[in-house]
Structure formats: structure tokens, C-alpha cells
Amino acid sequence: xxxxxxxxxxxxxxxxxxxxxxxxxxxxxxxxxxxxxxxxxxxxxxxxxxxxxxxxxxxxxxxxxxxxxxxxxxxxxxxxxxxxxxxxxxxxxxxxxxxxxxxxxxxxxxxxxxxxxxxxxxxxxxxxxxxxxxxxxxxxxxxxxxxxxxxxxxxxxxxxxxxxxxxxxxxxxxxxxxxxxxxxxxxxxxxxxxxxxxxxxxxxxxxxxxxxxxxxxxxxxxxxxxxxxxxxxx
Amino acid sequence: xxxxxxxxxxxxxxxxxxxxxxxxxxxxxxxxxxxxxxxxxxxxxxxxxxxxxxxxxxxxxxxxxxxxxxxxxxxxxxxxxxxxxxxxxxxxxxxxxxxxxxxxxxx
Lengths: 234, 107
Fold this sequence. Notes:
The complex is a heterodimer.
Chain A: H1 5-39, H2 44-53, H3 57-68, H4 73-83, H5 86-95, H6 103-111, H7 115-127, H8 132-156, H9 170-182, H10 186-205, H11 210-233
Chain B: H1 3-28, H2 35-58, E1 59-60, E2 65-66, H3 71-86, H4 89-106
């Protein structure tokens, strides 16, 4: 090992500092998922296996609901794919900051890309004080907490009071602040407003989960052309 | 369901989750990206965050209709101001939670 042990500890500490809001937010959601899974007839080891192999909160909730409704395995897998397509966008945006990194690292890193870890890591990469090992720490810590929370939920979740200390708002609060961090100029503000409006409209008019990907792509594209037009008119 | 069934289901779901996360990264990180793509991708994070948040704040998820009086939205306003003033992620999360918790008693 070429790196001194101290710098590993430092990396872990920095990663943990960035990851705690995610962990705080994942805990009640993981508990809730565990409870629902247990009610749908999954035992704790099946929940653990699912969280380990899948690690995608919304897809897991949908899976449990579909299992309870007696859906086929192929329908559940296909739905998972559709729900998680938005991560292609996040993975692409992260590629800008992980250019030239070994494929082995990227293959491991990709496992932990969620909405939340993406938002935290991309913000930090953009601020320029972040490296890939710290980013990986965020992914892995979030994953560990998620697995633990879902197992806990499947075992004792029904005894935990709902909504204590406003913990259900942790991820919303985190997204609000990360959104603020992203607003680094007028074009970002315009894109955010476009995305929010399009997303609400899309959500109201079109059933399913396509609103996230659809609104993001439309808003980023509109923002891109607005920016180009503004630049060329100067 | 038995263990092989679960393995098959979760393995399939795992692949359907992993491939969209891995393929763009593995492909794009080893390519010279054109400037237009970099510019476009730099707008993606703000767009995704806003697209994730807005329906959670402005709509009712059970009826899927517009709703302007949700506690989530009312709490979001001071939380947003706090984030703008302090630029502290941890502080914003805690302030949001506290307000949401207190708001729950009155709502």
C-alpha cells in the first residue's frame, strides 16, 4: 500500500461528513420499505438480498407493491428498468468528472449511483474539493445504511413510530440545499424553473414516472439553446 | 417464493438497475466529449433536482393533482431561505426536519 493509513481515514471522514444527510434520510424510508416487504410476505433475508442486489429505493417499493399484487417476475424487472432509466443521465453527468478513471473503479462506483449520492457527489465534484475515493465512500455508506434500515424495518419496523422528529423531510431538505448549490448563474436558475414547471405539468398529465427524465431532458435542452442564443447575441 | 425465485427476480432487477448506471459512465469517461455535450450535461443536475423536487412540493401524490397548501411546500420556503443564507447542507437538513416536525403538530 502506497498511501499512509492516515489519508484513508481522512478520506473516510470526508466521505462520512458528506454522506450523513443521505443516511439520515434513507433510514425512515428503508424502515418503511422493510415493513411493507414483510407485510407482502418477504422474509428479512429476502429483503437483505433485494437491497444488496438492487439498491434502488423507488424500484424496490414498486417491486414490493407488484409482488403483493401478484405481478409476474418479468413485469417487475421491466418496470425496474424503466424507473431506473433516469440514472443514465446522472451517470453521464458524473462521467465528466471521472474522465480517464479505470474501468474497474467505474464498474464498482456505478453500483452506488442513486438520486441522492449523485446529487451530493456531483455538487462536491463541481466545487472542486472532491476525489473519487471520497465519492465512493458516500456511495458505500449510503448503501450500508440502506441495507441495514430495510432489514431492521422487516424485523421490527412495525414498532417504530412514524414521522418522529421530522425525519421524513431529511431528503427533501437535502435536495433543496443541493439545488441552491447548483444555482451558479442565471442559466441554471432558468433551467431549474423550466424543469420544475415541466415536471409538475408532466406529472399531472402523464401517468407513470417518465416526468423526471422527460422534464430534465427538455429543460436542459431548452436551457442549452437559450444559453447559446444569449452567447451569440453578445 | 423460494430462494432461486428470489435470486432470479432480484438478479434481474439488479441488472436492470446496474446497467443504466454503469454503461454511460464506462463509455463516456473514456471518450473526449464534445463541448456541446459538456455544456448540456452541466445543466442536467439542476434540471434533475428541480424535476424531482417540484412534484413533491406542489402536487398531492395520492390524487396526483395540483396542491399549493402542503406542509412540504410551506416548510420548503424557510428551508430554501436558510440554504441561500448559510449554504450549509447539514444545517438545512436539520432546519427542514425541525420545521416539518413542528409543523406536523399544527397541520
